[in-house]
Amino acid sequence: MISIPLSEYNELKTLIASLSEKIKFLIESNNSKDEKIKGLEEKINLLKNGRKSNTSSTPPSQDIGRSNKKNSRIKTGRKTGGQDDHPGYYLERKEIPDEIIDHKADYCSNCGADLRQVDSKLNGNESKQEVIIPSIQAQYLEHRSHSKTCPCCKAICKGVIPERLKAPIQYGSSVSTAVVYFSVVQYMPYKRIAITLRDIFHIPISEGTVDNMLDTSMEKAKPVYSIIQNKIGQSKIVGGDETGCRIANKTGWFFTWQNSSLTFIASSFSRGYKTIETYFKDGFPKAIYVSDCLPAQLKTPALHHQLCIAHLYFNWGKKRHFCYQKIGIPA
Q1: What is the pLDDT of residue 41?
Q2: pTM of the model
Q3: Of the four listed, 113, 196, 249, 278, which is most buried by Cβ atoms within 10 Å?
Q4: β 237-247/284-291 pair status
């Protein structure tokens, strides 16, 4: 047996304890790095084999690892730009302008003489037109009620102010029409609508008023919306689809049903069949229903089901077999 002095023994014991702590730290660090490597490998696999636009719910703009290098245009052999047989479009002059601004010389550019009292003549056809947008100022229309005394019976007859005017001052229908246009057609948020009306039309308006105007317009449009819904429900061919969206900072869905001339749109927080059943309880008993492979769409009652050609082309493989089995077509 080898005898070690007590002092050296204590030093070795301290060294072993220190090395043990370092080994433990290295093991934990190594495990942490292994987890990071695993996470990075999963991301790499997702980039290589992630969801693409060939699935029904992922638009091309959200493809992971998306590349625009592939050009889908068919080559024609022609040079880029306008072609020789292209008619071309240009800004045409107005035959009778709204305003004419004459530019006359006030002083002689040679000797400096005063020419303001000298008659001038137009320089041939030397004129140019400029298209401008005049400053837009909101008009305030005041409706006043007058009374008249009938000379026959002495009855006092009052002029009736339009019933639509409820408050001492309010916005007219043209303002609410502009709000609906900016929101529905141009997809502008409330704040930008308020800023646009303030900066361009000089109309002070709050985001709350914008919301109230949209609610009022929606109520007015409900009868027409119901007519569209009924006509689509009786159509012979109906196309249905759904796409993800954000509703009140939550994940929602926009459902669309359309025929050749009409489109019915509804929003929902559910992507399931319950949403379709809410708006089309009986489905489409007279229609060939064209849709993607979403089970909720295939569950919808219809005279016949047909797969959307675009989805049929892109969803090749297992999904195609699933869809075929659902509607009874041999794969």
Answers
A1: 83
A2: 0.60
A3: 196
A4: parallel
d(CA 267, CA 240): 13
Q: Retrieve residue 27's tokens.
A: 């093991």
The phi, psi pair for 247, rounded to 5°, reads -125, 115
- Note whether 288 and 302 are within 8 A (CB): yes
210 burial (CB, 10 Å; 0-12 / 13-18 / 19+) is buried
Whether the CB-CB separation of 270 and 319 falls below 8 Å is answered with: no
Q: How far apart are CA 331 and CA 329, in angstroms?
A: 6
Could you give the angle at the alpha carbon of 64 between the alpha carbons of 60 and 70, nearest 5°?
60
Tell me what pLDDT residue 331 has: 47
Q: Can you tell me the distance from the alpha carbon of 164 to that of 143, in angstroms, rounded to the nearest whole number? A: 12
Contacts of 313 (CB under 8 A, 6+ apart): none
CB 145 within 8 A of CB 162: no
Calpha distance 88→84 (Å, rounded): 10
Going from the C-alpha of 17 to that of each of 4, 9, 11, 91, 282, the distances in angstroms are: 18, 12, 10, 87, 77
Dihedral, 24, 30, 32, 34 alpha carbons, nearest 10: -150
